[in-house]
Sequence to fold (65 residues):
Amino acid sequence: MASKVSVKGPDQHPLYKFLSDAAGAPDWNFNKYLIDKDGKVLKRFRSPVAPESPELVGAIEAARK
Fold:
């Protein structure tokens, strides 16, 4: 379990600063970030994109190659 952290603003957690700088800040709950094995942020998926969506699954499969 993790404690509550700030995802925006002056108290933004370093993880969200890194993600926001690389792919844009989360605009609502359930944003997803795809990160490759080297730690590079490949893409941000906004809330409406379901975890099982073809768009997200395809991006994960492409990143594994």
Remarks:
- The mean pLDDT is 94.
- The longest helix spans residues 54-64.
- The beta strands are 32-35, 41-45.
- The chain has one domain: 14-64.
